[in-house]
């Protein structure tokens, strides 16, 4: 056991006798203090700082531990030979030339020794003279090696000088660049400051002019020398406002075009969307051209772009007339349709009268010298219904009201609905929908699934519980089918029947039947996860199996499990409906046969 540990053990035992308790940390600390202390009062001071009551026993304890530490403290005379050897390795002998110099590191010493040896070797080779033929040969080899080393040294030195020059050049360019940036920032700051000051000064002058005009004083413009009134000031302020508004609107238009380019790059746009995008780009380009021309204040007059000297005056006028804006075609009202029909009837009537007048004149047949006899087999007698059509036109009264004609057209549409293959199975289909929550509907193309099924559900009252939705894989199909169903129901598109596609929503709060794309229904599920506003959902063209349709199947399967009042109809044009039935937990399959056509073999 070492002396320090023995002192700590004695201190712990003595503390237990003096204070009635002991502590390893306290005994270790007091032993360390005793070894460093010069008098017993130093130990006693440490005990006082620990807020311990000083008694005679503590004074005796401090004296005893100090004497024990002084008596057994190791000195130089008690060192062993191993201690002396260990201490001697820390020192080195210094030469006469090294006295007073800074001690070098071991690596620097080795590097310096190598350099000295190399210089000594080169000096010996350079000044050593040949004493014999062998010495001459070896001297020639040494000279060649020496020259090679000198060339290598020059190359290294030249490379280092080039690197230094390149580094200095980079630093210089960097400093110049920083200087230019600072000058440009200062110039911009000055320009902005001057612009702000000029704008502020003009505002103050305008306010002063308004105050003077309000007091009834006459104000004269310093530049033009004309009298200024309130109307001119208002006109000036309106021009300034319109200029700022034009700049702001152009920035907004440019940003909107950039956003559309980034968001819808590669997407298929409708004709209306493409036309709107082209109009926006044309407006932006025309505004930029006008601004560029206004900025050219060089004092020269320039002809407008429309006036081209190479073209004739008539061609220029024609180009200007054809390039004007044309009003887009809109859906015609019933009054306009009736007027067009009456105009057509009057034109046909006048044409028929002119033709009857021409028959009274003498007509001659053309006579050909060479007649060709054609041989024809299996001919059928032709017919001419033009006279009947003219007679019917003459019999019609132009002054008849418009109601019966349009009722007849609607009745034709209703008759066409009854001729569809799906009509005979109407009652059976509605009974199947009532009995099953999920139904797989299989019918050939043209049987009337897309247009008639939502109408049947609407007619028996499902639309009173919520909207009837029908998904389509394409936007054009959703728009055209919605227009056809609105025509069959004799309602306006967008009211009871509507459609919803990307960038276009033709619906209203009164919409009962809604045709929408698969992606649009996915977007509605994000906003309304349980489809609470729908009572029936028809997934049409399920056999196409698009990505959106497959995702819809998974979502709708979860929705119908906790919404027992939601009716789901999966419509397909193929006979492979077993997969859909298995996926929807064995849903029933309803078959609708297609239309038969006579074929001659």
TrEMBL record:
Skewed-composition ranges (Basic and acidic residues): 99-122
InterPro entries named in the record: DEAD/DEAH_box_helicase_dom, DNA/RNA_helicase_DEAH_CS, Helicase_ATP-bd, P-loop_NTPase
Region (Disordered): 96-142, 188-207
Keyword Amino-acid biosynthesis on entry: no
Catalytic activity line of the entry: ATP + H2O = ADP + phosphate + H(+)
Annotated Helicase ATP-binding domain residues: 430-593
Pfam family, one: DEAD
Signal peptide: none
Gene Ontology CC entries for this record: catalytic step 2 spliceosome; U2-type spliceosomal complex
A molecular function (GO) term: hydrolase activity
Alphabetical list of PROSITE patterns matching this protein: DEAH_ATP_HELICASE, HELICASE_ATP_BIND_1
Compartments, record wording: Nucleus
Keywords in alphabetical order: Hydrolase, Nucleus
Protein name: Helicase ATP-binding domain-containing protein
Source species of the chain: Fistulifera solaris
């Amino acid at each position: 056991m070492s002396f320090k540990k023995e002192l700590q053990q004695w201190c712990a035992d003595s503390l237990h006798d003096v204070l009635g308790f002991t502590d390893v940390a306290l005994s270790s600390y007091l032993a360390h203090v005793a070894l460093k202390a010069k008098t017993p009062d130093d130990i006693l001071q440490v005990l006082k700082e620990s807020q311990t009551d000083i008694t005679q026993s503590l004074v005796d304890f401090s004296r005893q531990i100090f004497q024990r530490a002084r008596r057994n403290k190791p000195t130089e005379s008690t060192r062993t030979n191993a201690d002396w050897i260990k201490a001697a390795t820390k020192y080195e002998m210094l030469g006469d030339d090294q006295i007073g110099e800074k001690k070098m590191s071991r690596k620097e010493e080795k590097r310096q020794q190598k350099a000295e040896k190399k210089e000594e070797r080169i000096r010996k080779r350079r000044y050593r003279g040949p004493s014999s033929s062998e010495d001459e040969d070896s001297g020639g080899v040494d000279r060649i090696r020496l020259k090679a080393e000198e060339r290598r040294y020059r190359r290294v030195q030249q490379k280092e000088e080039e690197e230094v020059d390149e580094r200095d050049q980079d630093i210089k360019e960097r400093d110049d660049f920083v200087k230019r940036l600072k000058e440009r920032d200062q110039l911009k700051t000055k320009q902005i400051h001057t612009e702000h000051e000029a704008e502020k000064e003009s505002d103050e002058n305008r306010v002063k002019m308004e105050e003077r005009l309000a007091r009834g004083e006459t104000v004269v413009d310093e530049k033009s020398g004309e009298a200024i009134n309130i109307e001119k000031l208002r006109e000036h302020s309106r021009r300034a406002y319109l200029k700022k508004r034009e700049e702001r609107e152009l920035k907004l238009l440019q940003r909107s075009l950039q956003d559309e380019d980034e968001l819808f790059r590669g997407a298929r746009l409708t004709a209306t969307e493409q036309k709107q995008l082209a109009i926006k780009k044309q407006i932006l380009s025309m505004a930029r051209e006008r601004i560029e021309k206004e900025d050219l204040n060089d004092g020269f007059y320039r002809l407008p772009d429309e006036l081209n000297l190479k073209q004739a005056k008539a061609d220029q006028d024609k180009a200007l007339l054809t390039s004007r804006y044309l009003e887009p075609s809109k859906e015609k009202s019933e009054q306009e349709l009736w007027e067009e029909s009456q105009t057509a009837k009057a034109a046909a009537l006048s044409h028929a009268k002119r033709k009857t007048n021409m028959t009274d004149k003498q007509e001659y047949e053309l006579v050909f010298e060479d007649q060709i006899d054609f041989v024809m087999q299996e001919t059928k007698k032709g017919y001419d219904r033009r006279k009947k059509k003219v007679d019917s036109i003459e019999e019609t009264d132009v002054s008849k009201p418009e109601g019966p004609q349009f009722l007849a057209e609607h009745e034709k549409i209703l008759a066409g609905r009854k001729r569809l293959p799906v009509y005979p199975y109407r009652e059976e289909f509605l009974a199947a929908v009532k009995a099953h929550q999920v139904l797989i509907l299989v019918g050939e193309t043209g049987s009337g699934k897309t247009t008639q099924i939502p109408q049947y559900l609407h007619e028996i009252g499902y639309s009173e519980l919520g909207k009837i939705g029908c998904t389509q894989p394409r936007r054009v199909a959703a728009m055209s089918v919605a227009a056809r169903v609105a025509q069959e129901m004799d309602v306006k598109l967008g009211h009871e029947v509507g459609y919803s596609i990307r960038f276009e929503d033709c619906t209203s709060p009164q919409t009962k039947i809604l045709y929408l794309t698969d992606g649009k229904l996915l977007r509605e599920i994000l906003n309304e996860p349980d489809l609470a506003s729908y009572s029936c959902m028809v997934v049409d063209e399920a056999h196409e199996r698009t990505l959106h349709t497959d995702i819809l199947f998974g979502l709708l399967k979860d929705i119908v499990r906790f919404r027992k009042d939601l009716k789901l109809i999966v419509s397909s044009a193929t006979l492979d409906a077993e997969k859909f039935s298995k996926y929807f937990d064995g849903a029933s399959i309803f078959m609708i046969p297609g239309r038969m056509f006579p074929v001659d073999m």
